[in-house]
Amino acid sequence: MESLKKFFSIIADPNAYLSLVYQLFAFPLGLFYFVFLITGILVGIGLIIIWIGIPILLLMMLAWYGFSVFEKQLSIYVLKAEIPDIKKPENTKMSIWSQFKKYLSDPVTWKSLAFLFLRFPLGVLSFAITVSLMAVTVSFISAPFTYNYYYMEFGFFRVETLGLAILVAIAGILIGFLSLHVFKFMGLFYKRLSEVMLG
């Protein structure tokens, strides 16, 4: 009984819906980061021999810093991640060159870049799972209203009557609850990943 209560109570859990929103934006954000950064970095490396590449690479570093700050705030407010604030230099009189070297030597700098690149393949996967679950849920739940217009087939089994359509709709409701659990689990995964890579 307790397990059933836990299963169905997910509908009132705001974290499941926040995670759903996060998954829907995962793919477009990941695609943008990947295309923008990989293009800029490769162009910068290719042009470094004529010095033009140096400011391009510096611009890319500034960009990935900004993207990582955005992702950090997104994880904190949407996924409730616990990520410490960016450390401020202890010596405020450090030169720009010293601060730059300190930034390059900070593991978080490179972990954040890896996180931004990971957002693309993980975003494709999570977006595909999210959209598929949503499509199946909506399709099943709407079966009583649509079975007259198109048939749902499961192998040799076809939904052609209202009774069967209602059973499919009930299955769709259960899949909807299960989907919320999946979304929440995916959110917990991204929460932990962001805490490790951005903190």
Please tag this protein with its features.
mainly alpha; 199 residues; two-stranded antiparallel sheet; 3% strand; 2 strands
The order of strands across the largest sheet is 1-2
Low-confidence stretches: none
Biggest beta sheet attributes: 2 strands, antiparallel
Helix and strand composition category:
mainly alpha
- Proportion of strand residues: under 5%
H/E topology pattern:
HHHHHHEEH
Compute the CA-based radius of gyration.
23 Å
Number of extended strands:
2
Q: Looking at the structure, what is the overall shape?
A: elongated
Give the termini distance in whole angstroms.
Answer: 40 Å
Number of domains in the coordinates? 1
Average of the residue pLDDT scores: 88
* Helix fraction by DSSP (H/I, runs of at least 4): over 70%
Total helical elements: 7
